[in-house]
Amino acid sequence: MRRWFATRSRSAGSRAATGPGPTWDSCFACVGRFYPQEKGQDLLIRVLAREKWRSRPVSVTFFGSGQHGVGLAEMADFHGLENVRFGGFTHDIEEIWASHHALVLPSRAEGLPLVLVEAMLSGRVAIVTDVAGNGEVLEDDVSGFLASAPTEDALDEAMERAWQRRAEWRDIGERAAADIRRLVPPDPAGALAMQLISAGRRAIMRSHRRGGRLAPGRGWRGRRPRAECRSEATCAPPPSLMPRSAMTAASRGLLAASPGSPPWRSRPGRMGSARRRGCCRWRRSSASSQRCRPRRALPGTG
User: Fold this and answer.
1) Does domain 2-187 correspond to CATH entry 3.40.50.2000?
2) What is the phi-psi region of residue 226: left when phi exceeds 0, alpha when psi lies from -120 to 50, beta otherwise?
3) Parallel, antiparallel, or unpaired: how do β-strands 102-105 and 125-129 relate?
4) How many Cβ atoms sit within 10 Å of the Cβ of residue 170?
5) Is residue 176 within 8 Å of residue 120, measured between CB atoms?
6) Which residues of 58-79 are buried (b: 16+ CB within 10 A; e: fewer)?
7) Best-predicted range by mean pLDDT among 204-213, 248-257, 264-273?
8) More confident residue, 285 or 154
9) Mean pLDDT in residue range 53-81
């Protein structure tokens, strides 16, 4: 990504100046996997089948691969579109934008499409639907064109606005390239790694200031519980957390009250470790009080 960004930074201006200009037939590229349920290639084919686009010198090349490629080609043949081609899958992104003027992406669902970032870095106009992150990197009528919804009419309206301003495509592409370079770092993976490292360091510093420590597999521990919260007389677990055998015996009145050594004390596992972590959370009231309620006597113990 760093090499790609550097190459685009050096050559975007010259590529836009020496590439195909607005006086030529307009060549659009639709780049994405052939999955119309998300990418919406069928919307673009139906828009191109309208009479006004048939009469204009516009061609669209679909780049990508997928299980619906044959169906999309048959759909274009059904509408009798002679200005639609299928370029297949390619790794040469620079070649795509050296021979095409604009990106058309009629997506129904997206995240932040990488193809949009690549087209903007290459100084090309983008016509995309306003879904997911497209509107976060592209400003409508300034650095590209947004269709208000993934529908035929909305896509046709956005393409019409772009067509009426085709003499400004070069300037719009330059603004798009400048905008995307302010939003996307040259090395996105490295930038994300540094953010994660910085966040981890800040969390460690906050923990040290609170006197806590990091418990593997249990998240962050804060301050030590209060002394009264560590007392067995006031911090016994509720009956719902007692072993079933202890509850049965207590219900039959076979257990004597033993506040200093409750019958579940010797049982290892979750309750003992939870008591050490601060069992007051078992007995916290609905209010903001941090103290434990008095232990409720076991049934049958008197």
Assistant:
1) yes
2) beta
3) parallel
4) 18
5) yes
6) bbbbbbbebebbeebbebbeee
7) 204-213
8) 154
9) 95
For residues 79-105, average pLDDT = 94
Give the pTM: 0.60
Nearest residue to 276 via CA among 239, 221, 238: 221
Question: Which pair of structure tokens corresponds to residue 160?
Answer: 């019409």
User: What per-residue string of b and e applies to 273-282 under the rule 16 or more CB within 10 Å gives b?
Assistant: eebeebbbeb
Residues for the chain: how many in total?
A: 302
Report residue 19 as tokens: 């590439």
Question: Three-state SS string across 121-173, please?
Answer: HCCCEEEEECCCCHHHHCCECCCEEEECCCCHHHHHHHHHHHHHCHHHHHHHH
Domain boundaries, the chain: 2-187, 224-302
Query: Token pair 């309206």 is at which residue?
Result: 157
Segments of 42-141 assigned E as strands: 58-63, 84-88, 102-105, 125-129
